[in-house]
Amino acid sequence: MARVAQLLSAIGSHGTVGARLLDLSRATGIARPTVHRLLQELQDVGYVRQLENKRYALGTALFHLGAAAPSPVRDLAAVRRAAQKLSDACGDTVYVAILQFGAAHYIVRTEGAFPIRAQSVNVGDTIPLTSSYNGLILLAQLDEDAREQHLARLEHDQPDAWRTTSLTEHEQALRLALTQIDADGYVYGADVVMPGLAGIALPVPSSTGRPIAAVSISGLESRLPAEREPELLALLRATADEIARFID
């Protein structure tokens, strides 16, 4: 059962793009013949499906099973209070998102006192991982192959605000952001997910070692200058640690 759990977790980390048999063997440390046998058994019960490109993704039977499982967010009101505390401290918009179906699902948005707000995402929205600062944090938790699959869809997932900019330029900005996350554990900057919008985001710590949630501060570019980075990062880290108490 432990190997099955490892395998399902590895498949799930690739989202809807799917994973190759080789990827799954490397990620789990399970021999390829054994992975192939387990995949066949999981396909038989609908927990795994094979895509047209031969990759493996989670099956629809898991959707029904998951519907009966508790939410990883144990106390949404507490998460909202932590986010509001951060908004009050920094004056800007704070978002909390979780990884869901290979996308960023937004569960909290709180506002600070600054009158001009950057409300680019609403609570309840589920958007591509390349379309927000929190999404980039969640994208960075995936392996290299899964990242490339998401970036390859940028032409279809690109927000309308980027349509006047070349696709190549946008992709370069996203890749630089992912490099920063890999190196520093967070992203900070402007004109990454949307022109004129700045943000800072980092993962919410997880007991499993693979974060499924992220928290961010977003605002106009003038609101998040480089000199505010240390202050905002400290506030954000404290908030992420607090939120981690309420998300499994």
Automatic annotation (TrEMBL):
One Pfam family here: IclR_C
PROSITE patterns membership: HTH_ICLR (PS51077), ICLR_ED (PS51078)
The HTH iclR-type domain, residue ranges: 1-60
Keyword Transcription recorded: yes
Keyword match DNA-binding: yes
Annotated keywords: DNA-binding, Transcription, Transcription regulation
Ranges where the IclR-ED domain occurs: 61-248
Family annotation (Gene3D superfamilies): 3.30.450.40, Winged helix-like DNA-binding domain superfamily/Winged helix DNA-binding domain
Protein name per the record: Transcriptional regulator
